Amino acid sequence: MKSTSIPLAVLAFLALASTRGFAQDRVSSSEVRAEVPQSASQTAVVAARSTGSPPDLLIGAGDLLEVSLYGMPDFKTDVRVNSGGEISLPMIGTMPVAGLSVEQAETMIAHKLTEKGLFNDPHVTVFEKEYATQGTSVLGEVQKPGIYPLLGSRKLYDAISAAGGTTPKAGRYVLITRRNDPQHSVRVPLMTGAPESMENNVSVEPGDTILVSKAGVVYVVGDVHQPGGFVMENGNDITVLKVIALAQGTNPNAKLDSARLIRKTPEGPQDVPLSLRKIMAAKAPDPQLQADDVVFVPNSAGKSAAKKGAETILQMATGIAIWRIP
User: Fold this and answer.
1) N or C end of the chain: which has fewer CB within 10 A?
2) Are 71 and 79 a contacting pair, CB within 8 Å?
3) Residue 18: in which H helix or E strand, if any?
4) Half-sphere exposure of 125 toward its Cβ, with a 13 Å CA cutoff?
5) What is the rounded distance in angstroms from the CA atom of residue 302 to the CA atom of residue 5?
6) Which pLDDT tens digit goes with each residue over 160-175?
7) Residue 168 in contact with residue 214, Cβ under 8 Å?
8) pLDDT category, 318, cuts 50, 70, 90?
9) What distance in Å separates the CA atoms of residue 67 and residue 177, rounded to the nearest whole number?
């Protein structure tokens, strides 16, 4: 019995020692691999896989970073990532960060500080203050045009909302230029109705450029109380009667039966007669106006005014510098 039990004990001891040795080898090998520096792209892939962060959350060239060290206010600094994807920090020098997540950059900076023997357990914080290449540009008729860090895939109205919403001069469509296809812009209607709004609330990605169009302007010149250009607010339709009302009506000497609508066309200005007297009396339809249309109301006392050509009337409208919002 003794001769049998001794070999069994020896075998158990050898097996236990072998298992411990294998575990130590695994720990040692993982520690060695952790110390091997990776390229920015490799680190980005590892970070994305380990944290589940999508690629659009990674640091890029041109981004503005705020780097701080807990307990060291002098270390806090704003630094912009250069074209080579590198930043320069106090006590560390130059280091590559492009392609890293914020958490990955924090770990790398802390490791550098420890490696140089400056700190035992540094707590580094990296904050993205400005996305240069990965933000979504919102331009045109919005309250606050600029670049907004809409992280991940978002909707069109999210981007417009981040820019403070549209202005009263906003038009009826939005042009979206995709980061991966800058040569072809997508035109999306900007509707106010609930069903249409949901249908047109398309997805936008970091790097896209959103341009909210400007609403058209219609002009009233001639014998009215307040000639001027009037913005078609939020792209809303406007009629002849409405624009005359916005101009505070016609003067007593206005020749209502000789009014004209001048409309720009590819073939040149189109001159359309308007009978304001019949339109006001609801005996004729009230025409819808288009952007850049000019309504001309002549004065009955001046025959020459009634004979003005379309080009002259367009020049009169162009000379009006005042745009009014209804």
Assistant:
1) N
2) no
3) helix 2-35
4) 12
5) 129
6) 999 999 988 888 889 9
7) no
8) low
9) 32
